[in-house]
Design a protein that fits this description.
4-stranded parallel β-sheet, single chain, Rossmann fold, 2 domains, elongated, alpha/beta, 5-stranded parallel β-sheet
């Protein structure tokens, strides 16, 4: 039997993950009272049972101590029960935005500031986050991308990549992305904007790609950037980083940055060691 405990930050996507696991054939139960957890596991793990895949959702609630949940999980492990822990994560800014959009109160804010509830919850969950088998940061994930990641881990049983890398093209005139961990400026290359036949095209068009990559400096930049990223990624993984956003910017975010972001993505997507996705923030902005 495959038994998965799904937990994480409130607003991090736990309920969504449980629904997706249910669609994938898991028998899902969310937030059992603490005293019933051990009995539930004993019943569900009975030899010869019909259920082969189980997901149990557990999170912080104002009416129960999460420390008791952790003690029960440790006891289950001592008694020989095998389970995996999936931790659903998101950055504080993303969590705050989600709470404001849904107009919900954080379960630990007790009528006060949502930021205080998030801080308190993060401290409570720190230990189980460290012990988790999988940590998925949904800050920059689309629902479709989350489903693909869960299917890859729990349906296709592929190797889990703890680090998710987002390669993000952008235009400096629209502002540097607030969530970017690394930012690279490619405005040292000639701008296709000033070529009449390229002005209204983007770095997703072959003509623009040929123009940008026609300069030796573009190839040198990609080579050196790829080498640096290849060095950084295993070290980020070793230090427990789960989300990395690489920003590549030009003036408007339509030509040079898009071209070079695409080239970096092509180099990284099959390199292993991390999950990789690409996004072009400003490619649809008007000229």
């Amino acid at each position: 039997m495959r038994f998965v405990v799904v937990t994480g930050m409130s607003g991090g996507g736990k309920s969504t993950a449980l629904r997706m696991l249910e669609d994938a054939g898991f028998y899902c139960v969310d937030n059992l009272p603490v005293p019933l957890i051990e009995k539930f596991v004993e019943l569900i793990a009975t030899p010869g049972g019909e259920v082969s895949k189980v997901a149990l959702g557990l999170d912080v609630r104002a009416d129960q101590a999460f420390a008791d949940v952790q003690k029960i999980l440790e006891k289950l492990k001592e008694n020989g029960y095998v389970f995996e822990i999936l931790f659903m994560e998101a950055g504080d800014r993303t969590l705050l935005k989600r709470y404001k959009e849904t107009r919900r109160m954080h379960p630990l804010s007790q009528g006060g500031r949502i930021e205080d509830g998030i801080k308190k919850e993060r401290a409570i969950l720190n230990d189980i986050r460290i012990k988790s088998d999988y940590v998925i940061d949904t800050s920059n994930l689309l629902t479709r991308e989350l489903k693909e990641e869960l299917d890859r881990i729990f349906v296709q049983n592929e190797e889990y990549n703890s680090l998710m890398v987002t390669i993000l093209s952008f235009g400096f005139k629209h502002g540097i992305p607030a969530d970017a961990d690394l930012v690279f400026d490619v405005r040292f290359l000639p701008n296709p904007f000033y070529i009449d036949e390229l002005k209204y095209k983007t770095g997703n068009d072959q003509e623009v790609q040929d123009y940008v990559m026609g300069f030796p400096e573009a190839h040198t930049f990609i080579d050196k950037l790829s080498d640096m990223i290849a060095f950084l990624i295993p070290n980020y993984v070793k230090e427990g980083k789960y989300q990395l956003v690489i920003g590549i910017g030009c003036t408007g975010g339509k030509h040079r940055s898009v071209t070079l972001a695409n080239r970096l993505y092509e180099r990284m997507k099959n390199s292993g060691g991390c999950g990789v996705k690409i996004a072009h923030r400003d490619v649809g902005q008007g000229v």
